[in-house]
Amino acid sequence: MLPAAVIFDFDGIVLDSETPEYESHRRIYERCGVTLTVEEWCGVIGTWSEGHDQQWFTRLCARSPQAPSREDYFAERRRIFESILPADSMHGVRELLALLRDAGIPAAIASSAPSGWVVGAVERLGMRPLFGAVVAGDQVKHRKPAPDVYLAAALELGVDPRRSIAIEDSGPGIAAARAAGMKAVAIPHWLTARHDLSGADLTVTDAGQLSLDRLEALIS
Fold first, then answer.
1. Is 170 within 8 Å of 195 (Cβ atoms)?
2. pLDDT at residue 52 in the model
3. For the chain, what is the HEC assignment?
4. Is 196 a residue of the active site?
């Protein structure tokens, strides 16, 4: 039995925005003589909250007398982020989406990030026509690890979440998918390798390892 739908997380699954997000903060910390470790950073991956960037600026101010002004911090963070943001999707994603399209399996995005980022980034990648729905964190009541974005994406596609598969890179994302009743595939990002991904039904290194047979086996 083929899955009713395959629903993708966005950051770290469709686009590697996780690396430039971390690096943009880490490099400023480094200039100020402070280390921003992966361990410190990875605890926030897979979730989103108001003031996400502000918290890292506040922490730097508390740890270094060399911290720039708030305006300079955010301007430089944005400059670094945009300069190293990949121009294309992550390995195997386009090929997997082509397989799903040819098999008549709808695809969607379910992200905790704000719609202003997710929708714009999907469009810049030229991938919006490949997704039947794009649901972002500010469009639901509760962000991951709550199941809201996954349930909303399934509802928009008109599919049964219990016959759908989610593709995730984080612990909170896997928890959200399972809470929605979906099967979960984990593709660990280098920044989420420390997350507990044991709730996933299948773990692969990239989307290129996902065939229709492997997806079908999850549902069957």
1. yes
2. 76
3. CCCCEEEECCECCCECCHHHHHHHHHHHHHHCCCCCCHHHHHCCCCCCCCCHHHHHHHHHHHHCCCCCCHHHHHHHHHHHHHHHCCCCCCCCHHHHHHHHHHHCCCEEEECCCCHHHHHHHHHHCCCHHHCCEEECHHHCCCCCCCCHHHHHHHHHHCCCHHHEEEEECCHHHHHHHHHCCCEEEECCCCCCCCCCCCCCCEECCCHHHCCHHHHHHHHC
4. no
Rounded Cα–Cα distance for residues 106 and 153 (Å): 11
Residue tagged 């989406």 (tokens) = 97
Whether the CB-CB separation of 108 and 135 falls below 8 Å is answered with yes
> pLDDT (tens digit, 9 = 90+) per residue, 98-122?
999 999 999 999 999 999 999 999 9
Count how many residues are written for the chain: 220
pLDDT of residue 44: 75
What distance in Å separates the CA atoms of residue 41 and residue 113, rounded to the nearest whole number?
16
* 11 catalytic per annotation: yes
List the catalytic residue out of 9, 16, 148, 169. 9
Q: Which residue ranges of the chain lie beneath pLDDT 70?
A: 46-50
For the chain, give the percent of residues with pLDDT over 90. Answer: 91
Integer CA distances (angstroms), 197 to 22, 100, 189, 192, in order: 20, 24, 11, 9
Cα Rg of the chain, angstroms: 18
Output the pLDDT for position 105.
98
